[in-house]
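TA notes, week 10

Several of you asked for a full example with nothing omitted. So below is the full record: structure tokens for the whole chain, then the designed sequence directly under it. When grading your own attempts, check the secondary structure regions first.
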């Protein structure tokens, strides 16, 4: 499939051939859901922790005699039923990540790119480059294009001036082609890919 390319100032910059196996698939929500869930679970810290009865700070002396009180039998004030006692089967530090094959992760990225292309939210940019790292210049261009929440994917490396200028603009993210992922693509309203980015993504996903 063919797509028109533009420059930062909005002028036309020819056209680009997009691989149908990457940008022309029928998006499947189940595949996208599985990959996003894998990403978010992997990113979860898993550092939540509570104290068990062996870790709470209190005397281990038997609180009262075993028999003759008319109440329940207790030996330890750290038991879970007491206030400030240990927590029974509470959370402990662990990894929330789970396995997902590379083949399936690549498939998810293809469907994410295809979803943006089908929704008309894909923009092909000639090059993401600036002569100077001026936020005002880039902000003016972004406003003219109507990009409010956009992800810009460049080639193997991101232009330093462009990245520094974009860092000060809310809602604009810049990633190299190897950093492209399903979650970041789907959470932005507009996906902007440079010509170099298209080539790099096609080489990565074939």
């Amino acid at each position: 499939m063919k797509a028109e390319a533009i420059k930062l100032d909005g002028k036309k910059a020819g056209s680009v051939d997009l691989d149908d196996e990457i940008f022309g698939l029928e998006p499947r929500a189940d595949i996208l859901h599985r990959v996003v869930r894998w990403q978010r679970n992997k990113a979860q810290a898993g550092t939540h922790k509570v104290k068990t009865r062996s870790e709470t700070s209190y005397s281990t002396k038997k609180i009262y005699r075993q028999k003759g009180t008319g109440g329940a039998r207790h030996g330890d004030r750290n038991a879970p039923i007491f206030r400030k006692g240990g927590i029974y089967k509470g959370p402990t530090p662990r990894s929330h990540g789970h396995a997902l094959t590379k083949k399936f992760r690549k498939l998810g990225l293809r469907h994410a790119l295809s979803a943006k292309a089908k929704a008309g939210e894909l923009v092909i940019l000639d090059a993401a480059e600036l002569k100077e790292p001026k936020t005002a210049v880039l902000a003016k261009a972004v406003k003219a294009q109507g990009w409010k929440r956009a992800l810009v994917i460049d080639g193997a490396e991101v232009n330093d001036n462009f990245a520094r200028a974009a860092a000060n603009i809310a809602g604009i993210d810049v990633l190299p082609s190897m950093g492209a992922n399903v979650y970041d693509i789907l959470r932005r309203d507009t996906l902007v890919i440079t010509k170099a980015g298209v080539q790099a993504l096609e080489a990565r996903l074939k």
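The chain has two domains: 2-45+97-205, 50-90. Use that as a sanity check on your answer.
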